[in-house]
Amino acid sequence: MQIRKFTVGHIREAILAVKSEMGPDAVIMSIRTIKGKNGRAALEVTASKDTAQPAAAAELAATESRPVEAGAKALPFTGGGRPALSQEANLSRLIAELTALSGRLEEIQRNLNPENIAVRLENFAKGLDHLQALLDDANGGSVPPELAFEGALSAGYERLLKAGIAPVYAKELIELTSRQLSSRSLAPDVYGLEYLAAAVMDHIRTATPFAPGRDQQIHMIIGPTGVGKTTTIAKLAARQVFEMNRSVALLTVDTFRISAVDQLRTYARILNVPVEVCMSDADLAQAALKHADKDTLFIDTAGASPKDMRMMGELVKFHQTGIAMDVHLILAATTAAEDLRDIVDRYSALPIASLIVSKLDEANNFGNLYNLMQQTRIPCSYFTVGQNVPDDIEEATPERVADLLLDVAAQV
Q: Given pLDDT bands bounded at 50, 70 and 90, which one contains residue 251?
């Protein structure tokens, strides 16, 4: 019989270690609390595996598929019709059940966390705003009768609707523009577009989280599959290296796709910066410590459906490593309005510092982005406009958003 001891911090680590190093037939014999190397409480787990009679085990497996011959001695059964379990098997099953209960208790504790409750309430309020926008949209695309404007302002309202802006926000912008023009006694036909663009810009929040001048910056880039996270990281890193003269390291926790790691390594080689592949949150913390001398760290993450709660849990775990980092959510400009809102809501388990909008060059309407900015109030930091690294990226500005919505440049 093979007997080994493992020192771990959590029962789930023990089960994984035992099964990984001793095989699926190993059983846990005992668990006791000891003082770990760092002075904290740890678990000492003793596990065993029967290696003395492999032939007997093979014979037992073979007999399971043969009918019991007359006079043969059957295995002992309990009253419930199941073979009697050994003490080790009972203990192993009990540990598995306790592990499941432990995971459930942790989930309940997370749900009862005041911060999580606040996030859910905020998302509920955002949902009400979104529902109101949908109800307003159901009124149709024409100018509501209560809006007493015509001419250039009416045309501006229609232009906003055509761009995809929800009627509730279009009405707000037109009314603001009308008040501004009236207070200055300006003709809408002459100044209408200019003041409408100014109203749009007043409602756009942008951020510059990647600007130089700060201490070490650590940026985690998250988002659904296919939005261009790895390529965007390469563009941002190139700006840091070539334009801001900052030292950079690239970290990735996206170990699900080999191609993603290879792609990041290729970019790292071109930029002449180090890259680290992190298999766990502990690896991520260690990599951040290793590159504490770098000005900026970028963390690439796995793309997944925001409905995949397991993957979302992994992202939260990586974020909770004790490292101070900013989280940036990448969204594709080609995504439908209702899907954009759903993605943001599901990723709101993480504190999103800014939005990065990709594939701007592939989109036709941009009103869905304006609607999202109004609903979430999350600032936008960058737009990507193509695949070329490092060129096809630009800082998000209110002027750029106004031009996307109103095509101001073409009207001048």
A: very high
What ranges in 274-381 are assigned the alpha helix state H? Answer: 281-290, 309-319, 337-347, 367-376
What value does the mean pLDDT take over residues 261-282?
Answer: 91
Give percent of the chain with pLDDT exceeding 70: 70
In 3D space, the residue among 305, 346, 357, 296 whose CA is nearest the CA of residue 326 turns out to be 296
Max Cα distance, the chain (Å)? 109
What are the Cα distances from residue 409, in Å, to 14, 165, 360, 403?
A: 63, 19, 17, 7
What number does CATH give the domain 217-395?
3.40.50.300
Confidence class of residue 84 from pLDDT cuts 50, 70 and 90? very low
**C-alpha of 340 from chain center:** 13
391-397: long-range contacts at Cβ-Cβ below 8 A with a sequence spacing of 24 or more? 391/235, 392/235, 392/361, 393/232, 393/235, 393/236, 393/239, 395/206, 395/208, 396/206, 396/357, 397/206
Residues 6+ apart with CB under 8 A from 53: none
Q: Which two tokens stand for residue 81?
A: 């019709």
**Phi and psi at residue 19, in whole multiples of 5°?**
-65, -35
Surface-to-core class of residue 119, CB atoms within 10 Å of its CB (0-12 exposed, 13-18 middle, 19+ buried): middle
pLDDT score of 166 more than 60: yes
Q: What residues form DSSP beta bridges with 327? A: 220, 352
pLDDT tens string 358-389: 999 999 889 999 999 999 999 999 999 988 88
Task: Give the tokens for residue 233.
Answer: 């990281």
Tell me which residue of 60, 37, 36 sits closest to 50, measured CA to CA: 60
Q: How many CB atoms lie within 10 A of CB 186?
A: 14
Q: How many CB atoms lie within 10 A of CB 123?
A: 17
Burial (0-12, 13-18, 19+ Cβ within 10 Å), 338:
exposed
d(CA 98, CA 104): 10
pTM across the whole model? 0.64
pLDDT score of 4: 84
Integer Cα distance of 163 and 407 in angstroms: 10
Structure-block tokens of residue 243: 């334009």
